[in-house]
Design the sequence.
């Protein structure tokens, strides 16, 4: 009889221990699997995104600079206005704010999608950087960074 009671108590203690172990380990495993799925989605998005600055030019009055940026990746790029644009002479460039964020200050940039309605694969984005006066001649550096961190840079003279 003593062995039966001892065995029953050990079985109950083992079941309770397993319940405590399961309740402490399962949420941790669940959180780590969610983190892994989220990270995989982020990596997938970055692998499918690519841009290429294909050309740059300035306007006749030299107060605007145009950059044409092609989406050469496999996914649509959303929230273009959240992209970062770095522009200026190669030894003196800075981040240029988007037109909605710039207020009345210059330089600032805006964009138009030229051959589609969304910035999908194969579509070209025309970025217009506007100055209040001629920025001067020289070699210029431009870098476009889309919201997920993918970037391309381009040097040109004007």
Sequence:
């Amino acid at each position: 009889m003593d062995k039966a009671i001892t065995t029953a108590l050990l079985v109950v203690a083992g079941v309770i221990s397993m319940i405590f172990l399961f309740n402490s380990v399962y949420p941790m495993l669940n959180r780590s699997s969610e983190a892994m799925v989220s990270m995989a989605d982020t990596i997938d998005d970055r692998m499918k995104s690519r841009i290429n600055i294909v050309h740059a030019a300035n306007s006749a009055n030299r107060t605007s600079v145009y950059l044409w940026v092609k989406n050469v990746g496999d996914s649509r790029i959303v929230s273009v206005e959240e992209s970062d644009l770095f522009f200026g002479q190669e030894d003196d460039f800075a981040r240029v704010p988007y037109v909605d964020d710039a207020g009345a200050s210059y330089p600032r940039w805006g964009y138009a999608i030229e051959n589609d309605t969304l910035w999908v694969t194969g579509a070209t984005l025309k970025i217009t950087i506007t100055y209040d006066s001629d920025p001067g001649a020289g070699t210029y550096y431009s870098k476009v960074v889309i919201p997920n961190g993918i970037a391309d840079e381009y040097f040109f003279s004007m």
Observations:
- DSSP finds two helices and eight strands in the chain.
- Strands lie at 51-58, 64-71, 84-89, 92-96, 108-113, 124-130, 139-145, 151-157.
- The longest strand covers residues 51-58.
- Helices lie at 2-48, 99-102.
